[in-house]
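Working notes for the structural subgroup meeting. M.R. asked for a predicted model of this chain before we commit to crystallization trials. I am recording the input and output together here so anyone reviewing the notebook later can reproduce the run.

Input as submitted:
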Amino acid sequence: MEGDLFSIIYLVTSLKLRPSTSLLLCLLAKALTASSVLLSTLRRTSMWRLRRLLMRLITRSMPRELFVRSSFFGIWIMKTSVVAIRDIIPPPLRETFNDVYIAYELMDTDLHQIIRSNQALSEEHCQYFLYQILRGLKYIHSANVLHRDLKPSNLLLNANCDLKICDFGLARVTSETDFMTEYVVTRWYRAPELLLNSSDYTAAIDVWSVGCIFMELMDRKPLFPGRDHVHQLRLLLELIGTPSEADLGFLNENAKRYIRQLPYYHRQSFTEKFPHVHPAAIDLVEKMLTFDPGQRITVEDALAHPYLTSLHDISDEPVCMTPFSFDFEQHALTEEQMKELIYLEALAFNPEYHHQ
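Returned structure, recorded in token form:
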């Protein structure tokens, strides 16, 4: 099969594994949805934690370019609040390798697992998680990149409550014009402009997702658990209300007509619906969940919001000085060319490695 070049990719995480130490136990995660639940085992006196993710990159379900994009972006964007790649292990034989081993920094779980657990979360926990999401997103957006698939399972956590954004398989630079409107953002976290098939969306789609995630964290259940596109749009309009004519300016005529023929929904009071949420947090979320993306709060302004005053420190919120580019996608790469690109990245992590 054409996609067999990258049919099996193991992502292995460990604690300072020595070359002589064999890998004892690995967790097989769902394809394309990187679960960060870890298994641990003992070997003699050592504790090893490992994660093994099997990703079946079959051409029909996931283009090979999607893996290359995710890996290269993960290599390039190794900053705080974004999950870092620690190593790419060079293959024993350059000419015959079919597997890629990538070592990521160790994280213990993800936000989806925490939300679904019985773990008690204080207001301070939720506030800190929100801050870290926005901090990581600030760096990503400053790199001229949209994440496009923010959701709780793509937010990794460790026991110290450190949060890292992961999974850049759907990431795109903001200057691209061939945005996909179908396969982007899990439905529950999808902004109105995506539900209404807008093709020229902006970084505001990630901000909407953050608002949904934060309210799910506070309420311990999804904010807009739509069954399909139509139900999803209805749920969000039932909460934020039917948009005014002025708020429809970014939509095409077909989308405008569709909105106008829907029942009229009055905006609900966030304060009354979520009485347990701090008023300042409500104010921030309302600014994130604004129908018109042009009026939606930016990541920078969200970080400077009064709700995050105790955490906000612009000197500790890095930005990218050089915008990222997916230029390699502009060319039709052969399998051998893709292998060469990945091999060169592995050598960059291991300059002492000798070609076999």
